[in-house]
Amino acid sequence: MTKAELVSEIASKAEISKAAAEKALNGFIAAVTEALKKGNKVALVGFGTFEVVKRAARKGRNPRTGQEIKIKASKAPKFRPGKALKKAVA
Q1: Residues 6, 25 contacting (CB under 8 angstroms)
Q2: In the chain, count of helices (H) and strands (E)?
Q3: How does pLDDT run across 17-72, given as a tens digit for each residue?
Q4: What predicted TM-score, i.e. pTM, was given to this entire model?
Q5: 80 CB neighbour count, 10 Å cutoff
Q6: Sheet with 42-44, edge to edge strand ranges
Q7: Where are the domains of the chain?
Q8: Which residue from 38, 42, 64, 66 lies 20 to 30 Å from 81 (Cα-Cα)?
Q9: Do the beta carbons of residue 60 and residue 51 sit within 8 Å?
Q10: At what angle do helices 18-37 and 3-14 cross, to 10 degrees?
Q11: Separation CA 20–CA 11 (nearest Å)
C-alpha cells in the first residue's frame, strides 16, 4: 500500500476529506519521528510500539573481497506489533 492509498483509506474510514487525512497522517509521522529522535518510545496499545534500538559496533566481512571490516555502532528505529495486531493478521 502506498502513502496515497493509505490516505484514501483513512479518508474513507474516518469520513473526512483526503486533504484532512493527509494532514493527519503527516502529523502522525512527524510526531513519531520527533519522539524517536528524543529517545522516547511511542506505544499504541493493541497496535504496537515504535522505539529506537542501539546496535553495538561489530566486525563484518566485505562479501565481494572477504576482507574483515569494522561496522560502527548505530541507532535504528524498530516497530514491535501489539497483541491485537498480531491476532488480526494471523
Answers
A1: yes
A2: 3, 5
A3: 999 999 999 999 999 999 999 999 999 999 999 999 999 999 999 999 999 999 99
A4: 0.80
A5: 12
A6: 42-44, 48-55, 74-81
A7: 3-89
A8: 38
A9: no
A10: 110
A11: 8
